[in-house]
Structure formats: structure tokens, C-alpha cells
Amino acid sequence: MAMYDNHRPTAELQALDAAHHLHPFTDGDALNRKGARIITRAKGVWLTDSDGHQILDGMAGLWCVNVGYGREELARVASEQMLQLPFYNTFFQTSHPPAIALAAKLAQLAPGDLDHVFFNGSGSDGNDTNIRMVRRYWQALGQPERSVIISRWNGYHGSTMGAASLGGMKGMHEQGGLPIPGIAHIDQPDWWSEGGEMSPEEFGLARARLLADKIEEIGPSKVAAFIAEPIQGAGGVIIPPETYWPEIQRICDAYGILLIADEVITGFGRTGNWFGSQTLGIRPDIMTTAKGLTSGYVPMGASIVSRKVAEVINGSDEFAHGYTYSGHPVAAAVALENLRILEEEHIITRVREVTGPYLKAAWEQLTEHPLVGEARITGMMGSIALTPHKASRAKFAAKAGTVGLICRERCFANNLVMRHVGDRMIISPPLVITEEEISLLMTRARLALDQTLDIVRAEGLLVAA
Ligand SMILES: *Cc1c(COP(=O)(O)O)cnc(C)c1O
């Protein structure tokens, strides 16, 4: 078995990495001066690095390792499927059992009439599929001018040209000549940062109504769809006020536009139900899924599509779109086994009824810490806003992300992975995390916050903007 040079010294691996490896979403020079942290193995919620540290993974990799690391069943089905049928395509009127079984299983799990599946290789190309599909849908219905898709500033939908255009990350747009034509953005429902004097309820309604304003501005006959994450993930785990989604749903229904829920993070149990749409009471026409679909063991994405949309796509000429690896048999076999584990081990029920409430109680107590403003969590995705002054929900005078980065480094130093988005800290642990591991996560998070406060004070950063 190739263990890929686990035995090499860390410095040697770091030098090779610096010499040849271009990292995603990374300042390469800064990384190479410091040297990458090298993860060599993992089990359950625990990572091991090349120096032998045991690190609690509070992010489930990148929000994806829902069943935890080291599940032998997933390795076994991948191996068996590779020997039986490692690849065949699903173009040109062919299919194969793993893709068929997975499409049927997803149709059974998905809410409402979401009962057809288009397979992708990732979340990004899933959203590119969705752009193509909703435009094709309206074209087939004789309304080709209905092509604009509305999304949100600070939303994240992936990194391809299409997906990054749907996303509202201005830094990404600036580097790529984005967005592509036919995409429009509205402001996000982030009450802590942008709510001003409004109550969360008023603010949720106000931000939802921006969708109606934008549709009127563009012209209702030109708008194809609205896309959003039920809970924003990469934008900082922003849980919208309760008034937000019902109003968004009402507006989509009133204008007859399609609603795409980007469930790449919220799918497969993260919010305590199979899908975030169920937790937040949304009725999407299309759901983008990826990440937790295979618990990240192999790459795969799936657009889960309503019967209404599927009938129009099937009922018109060939939909000229697809990927070599759409429905890849090894990925589909792993996904099916992953779904079996989630279901038979009642992992999602445990998140909803036991570990989720346990984590929530501990997480919300973080507001007692001097640095923490709001602390919010749904299921196994949560965030805290760091602030120099809680009552006014103030931002730091220092450049956004300065304090967040200090806190992330203190987490790493205490063997905990917690990410920062600006000055918000976020967690999204594997769904199999136990109560004991949650307690440990909280102890380390508090320690990291205490140390961050000491550093912030010492460096004179505890100053409101
Ligand atoms: C990660 C993510 C994507 C992109 O998925 P990739 O597999 O990285 O292409 C899309 N949408 C959301 C909400 C995500 O979190």
C-alpha cells in the first residue's frame, strides 16, 4: 500500500510542497515561508499531523466528513466497485446500477417532489449545472428571455466561472472578471453586522423584500431563479432571522421563479434533518448537494430536481450538458454506503435530538466571554462574532480578520481546528462527534478565546472601529 511518504520528515515535505504545489485559496508566499501543516491520517473526529499532534477537527475537513474519518465500509465498497465496474459513462443512453440506485435513494430522501437527480463532480459544477438547467427550463417553456439568476452578496456557491458568479464574494469577482452576464445580487440577512437599529425580525423581512425589489428592477419576465444557501456557510455561518425564508418563499411563489437551495453544506444531516430546506421550511425546485453526499471520501455532487423541472428538461430536445464523471460508479457506490451509515446508525436523529442540543447549550454560553458578541448554531454548524464592544455590535478598528486570524492560530496551537471568516469563528464538526468530544472542543475553544483576548489586549487591538 502506498502511504505516500508518511515517513519523510516534516521539513522535507514542506519544502517539496512549497516547490511544486499551488494551493487553493492561499497566499502562496506566506504559506511557503511558514510551511504547510501536513495531515497524515485521521480517525473519527481526530486528525494526526506529521509531527504526531492529535487535532480535533471542528470543521469536518471542509464541512464534508459527516460520518467521520476512517470508516472501513466506505473503503470496502470503493474497492469492490472498482473491481466490478470502475467506470462507465451515463451519456448516450447507458446507465449502471450504482448511479441508478443512488438516484432512487436521493429521490426517496429528498423532500416534496424533488425526485430526479443530475450528477456532478462537485458543488461548483453542480451550480454550473443548475445555471444551465434553469435557463434550459425557461427556454423549453418558450420564455428564453427569462435567464437572470438572483443570488446574494457574501453567498458562496463554488469557484468555477458560473458558481463564483452566483457567489457574492467580491474578492473572487475582482480576480476573474466576474460575474458572467445574467447574474444579479442582493444583500445578505446578516443581522449582527448589518441589522442596524432594526430587530432581527424586521431585518429578516427587509432583506427578503430586496428580492422582490430586484425582480421588479430587472423585470419579472426576465428572472429565471433565485439561489441561496439555507444557512450561509463560507460567508461565516450566518443563520438568517426566522422571518427571512418564509418571505423569500412567498416572493419566489408570487413571481413564479424557480428556487434553488444550495445544500452543499446543509445537506445530509448538518442541520439535524436530511436537508437544511426541511429545517428552515423551504420548498426548493432544485437542491445542489455535494460534500456530505460522500462524506468527502471521494468527490461527487448531485443536483436534486423537482418533477416539474425534470419533466420539462426530459420533454424537450437533448439537454446539451454533462460531465465525463456524472454518476461515477465508484463515487455513487461510496455515496450509497455513506447514506446507509447515516440512516442505519441514526446519526442525523442523534444530531437533532442529542448532540446538537448539547453543543448548542455549550456554544451559546460563549456569549459570556468578553470577546464574543453573538453565538449561534443550528445542528452542527455554528459561529461566534468576535467584537471589541458587544452592546453596539462593534467591529474592530483593525483590518477585518486580524483578530479572527489570531484566534484561529490559538485554536491550532491548542489542537483544535476552528476556521475564521473575517472576525467570525465557525465550526462544523463531523456529525458523529460525541458529547465527550464536544466538551473537549468547548474547553479548547474557550482556552483559545482567553489567549486571543490576552494577545488582543497586549497588542492594543481591543478598539472599536
Ligand atoms: C463548498 C461549497 C460549494 C462548492 O463545492 P465544491 O465541491 O468546492 O466545488 C458550493 N456551495 C456551497 C454552499 C459550498 O459550501
From TrEMBL:
Q: Which InterPro entries match?
A: Aminotrans_3, Aminotrans_3_PPA_site, PyrdxlP-dep_Trfase, PyrdxlP-dep_Trfase_major, PyrdxlP-dep_Trfase_small
Instruction: Tell me its cofactors.
Output: pyridoxal 5'-phosphate
A Pfam family hit: Aminotran_3
Gene3D superfamilies referenced in this protein's UniProt entry, alphabetically? Aspartate Aminotransferase, domain 1, Type I PLP-dependent aspartate aminotransferase-like (Major domain)
Origin superkingdom: Bacteria
- Which CDD domains does the record match to this protein? OAT_like
Q: Which GO terms describe its biological process?
A: biotin biosynthetic process; gamma-aminobutyric acid metabolic process
Gene Ontology molecular function = adenosylmethionine-8-amino-7-oxononanoate transaminase activity; pyridoxal phosphate binding
* Keywords annotated in UniProt: Aminotransferase, Pyridoxal phosphate, Transferase
Give the family per the record.
Answer: Belongs to the class-III pyridoxal-phosphate-dependent aminotransferase family.
Q: Which PANTHER family match?
A: ADENOSYLMETHIONINE-8-AMINO-7-OXONONANOATE AMINOTRANSFERASE
Entry protein name? Aminotransferase class III-fold pyridoxal phosphate-dependent enzyme
